[in-house]
Amino acid sequence: MSLAMPMAIAAQSTPVDPETIRALEERAFNAWPARQSVLHGGWVFRLSGGFTKRANSVNALASNASFSGVRAAAEALYARHGLPPVFRISPLAPAAADQELADAGYTYFDPSLVMATAGLDAAQAHACVQIESTSTAAWLDGFAAANGVQAQNHAVHHAMVHAIALPCAFATLHDGAGRTIGFGLAVLERGAIGLYDIVVDPSLRGRGHGSSLVRALLQWGRDVGAGSAYLQVRAVNGGARSLYAGLGFAEVYQYHYRIPPAKV
Fold first, then answer.
1. pLDDT digits (tens, 9 = 90+) for 81-98
2. Residues of the chain with CATH 3.40.630.30
3. Helices 209-223 and 238-246 sit at what angle, rounded to 10 degrees?
4. How confident is the model at residue 125 (pLDDT cuts 50, 70, 90)?
5. 153-179 pLDDT, tens per residue?
6. Which one, of 259, 264, 253, 263, lies nearest residue 5 by Cα?
7. Residues 6+ apart with CB under 8 A from 195
């Protein structure tokens, strides 16, 4: 994990309803389940053996939940499991939480956006995108490899995918010769689909393949009765942000991580 601090994204000019944020946060937690979760006074401590930040982080569950004692409790719990205490700061967290972490030396890291579209327009699904309702061993291995998951983490990664309790679409993109060049995952909950880890072969990016994957998953969402979609994207990924904006997604809110200071 790099400690370089990327440029912060501009603050939103229009406040977002906390209930809208909470509903999207809950969907995201369910769509990428942690192996273990501990509830603590309006916060949730998620643990998954250190695999992925979002599944190994402290998150606010309710708007402006008190942060009193949360940092100490999280530090003790994550230390018990041999993990660093990573905090994910969404708009549900009080400003005092981010300030306390900053004062304690926690580094601002990986600013990201949650984007959503309020409607799913009819779109022609790309013929080279195959969507399955269950994950095959080949899809899991390919999806993990495409996302840079190291071989020693494949078992944890696959178990987390299998743990998703909600309806899913497992997408595979092929080129004209039948070679696999991309993957994507969509999860349906409460009338919305979440798009996760849309990835295309790096040597073939910028050719519309990512758009084909997203359009196919949005079409799947329409077919199963969803009326909206959401996703999470890193602020530094300008290409992906432009792609999603071109498909009707707009920023809803932002979040970032705070990671503990390096030990001397």
1. 999 999 999 999 999 999
2. 129-226
3. 50
4. low
5. 888 889 999 999 999 999 999 887 778
6. 259
7. 184, 185, 186, 214, 217, 229, 230, 231
> What pTM value is reported for the model?
0.90
Give residue-wise pLDDT tens across range 23-78.
999 999 999 999 999 999 999 999 999 888 999 999 999 998 999 999 999 999 99
CATH fold of the domain at 129-226: Aminopeptidase (3.40.630)
DSSP the chain: -----PPPPPPPSS---HHHHHHHHHHHHHHS--SEEEEETTEEEEESTT-SSTTSSEEE-STT---TTHHHHHHHHHHHTT----EEE-TTS-HHHHHHHHHTTPEEEEEEEEEEES--------TTEEEESS--HHHHHHHHHHTT--GGGHHHHHHHHHT--S-EEEEEEE-TTS-EEEEEEEEEETTEEEEEEEEE-GGGTTSSHHHHHHHHHHHHHHHTT--EEEEEEETT-HHHHHHHHHTT-EEEEEEEEEEPPPP-
Report the 10 Å Cβ neighbour count for 244: 25
The length of the chain in residues reads: 264
Q: Residue 185: is its pLDDT beyond 90?
A: yes
What Cα–Cα distance (Å) separates residue 28 from each residue in 4, 156, 165, 185?
A: 26, 18, 12, 12
